[in-house]
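[agent] plan:
  1. take the single chain provided in the ticket
  2. run structure prediction with default settings
  3. attach C-alpha cells to the ticket
  4. add a short note for the reviewer (M.T.)
[agent] executing step 1
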Amino acid sequence: MELENGLRIICAGFPLPAHLSMSVANKIPVTVLTGFLGAGKTTLLNRILSEHHGQRIAVIENEFGEIGIDQALVINADEEIFEMNNGCICCTVRGDLIRILGQLLKRRDKFDRILVETTGMADPGPVAQTFFMDEDMKAQFTLDGLVTLVDAKHLLLHLDDSEEAQKQVAFADVILLNKCDLVAAGELDTVEQRLRRINAMARLVRTTNADAPINTVLDVGGFDLSRAIQINPAFLEPEYPFEWAGLYKLNGAAALVAGACGHDHGHDHHPHHAHDEHHLKVALLPVPTSGEAALQSAAEKGVRVFANAPEDRLPGSRIESSTTPWRLDLHGAHAHFPLLVTPGHYVLLAEHAPEEFHLSLKAADGKTLRPVLAKYFEEGHSHDEAVTSVGIRCEGQVDSSLFSGWISAVLSTQGNDIFRSKGILNVAGREKRYVFQGVHMVLDGREDAPWGDGERLNTLVFIGRKLDREKLNEGFRACLRKM
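[agent] step 2 finished; step 3 output follows
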C-alpha cells in the first residue's frame, strides 16, 4: 500500500498465540532497531519477518541516501512497508514518524507490534524521545526496547570518529555483536570490552548473520529511560525542524518581509538543514493566548506542520495560517508577503534564524512589529557532514566480469572511505536479480528473486567519505554491455 511521501508498511503475518502478552496497559509495543552502516540490520529484519514467532509486525524503515534500496532487500516486499528517505530520523522527521504512527493506529487490527529500523547514520535518541515527549504517542505506544547491532570486524574503525555510532551503543538495551565469524576470539574480547566501557548495562549477545534468538530482540521489557537521561541530561528536551519562533499580536494588516541570505550572520544553524540562501521555510500558527505556554504549544504543533510538503510562495503572495509550511521565494532583496489573518495572537516559525534572512513582520505603516516572545531552538546533535551518499540507477545488462573487476578495484583503493555499498543488478544472461552488499572492503553477492515482469533497473548506493560521484557513475556504466 503506497501512502503519502513514498511511505509504505510491511506486516509479517503470523497469528498471535493466546499465551503471548499484549502491550503494557494495551499500549502498542515498539522496538527500535539501530546500528552503524553494514552492521546487519536488514539481515536481522528479514529473520524477524520470516520466523514463526507468532506476532504480526509493522515495520517503519529509514534510509540514508538519495536512492532507497533497503525495501528491495527485505523479504515480503510484495507486502507493505513504511519507508522514510529523509536520511535522518531526528528533529527533521519526527513529524513524519508521528504521522506514520497515527496512520498505523487506523489499522490497529492488522498488527501486534511495531519495529522502527533507523538509518545507520541516525542518532537513536530523538527516535526514542518521540515516545516520551509527544502526549498522543505516549498514550498509545510503549517503547519496548532499543536494539543495536554492531559489526565486530569494523566497529573500532567508527567508534572514535562517529558520535552516532557511540550513541547507538550507549542508548542500547540490547547489543548484538554481529559478524563474529569474521573476527578471531581475542579480537572479539577486545571489541566487547570496548562496548562494555560505553554501555555496561545492556545485554550483549554474540551473533553470526544476526542469528540472535528472537526473544532477545522482541519483548525486551522496556527502554531504560533513566540511563538515557544519564547519558544525555537533555534527553527529554525536544528537538525541532526549525530554528526560531516568535509570538506576535496582530491587530490589523501586516506583512512578512525577508531577503535572500548572502552570508552567515553568526548564528549556529542546524548543520544538517540544507541552507538554501534564496528560499526560507516558515509556518504561521494561531494561538489562543499570549505567553510561554502558547509559544511552546505552537512549537510542538509545528513539528507536524513542518513534516508536510511545503507550498511555494512568490513575493506578493498572501500567507495565512495553515497545516503546511510556506516556502518563500527570496531572490529579491526585500520580498514582501502580505498576511491574510484575523486579529489575534500568532506564532511565526522559521527554518533559520531571522537575522540570516532579515526576517521581520511589518505593520501597514511600515513599522516593524516586535514579537511578544521569541525563542531560538538549538540542536542537540550534529552529523558528520563529510559522509555522503552516491546513488546510481539505470537500465542495461551488467557484464559480470567487468563489474567484478571494477567493484574490486573501487573497494581495494577506496574501501577505508566507503562505509557501505549495496545494489541490485541486472546481470546479463540471468533471470534473477543479483544482490550485493559490502562494508568497507568486505563484499558479498548472491542471486536473489526472479525479476518477473517488473522493470530491470540496476540500483546501487555507496555511502562514505570523499566519494567521487562522476567517477563512480562512469565506472559502473562502463560495466554495461553495449547494445
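[agent] step 4 note for reviewer: The longest strand covers residues 141-151.
[agent] ticket updated
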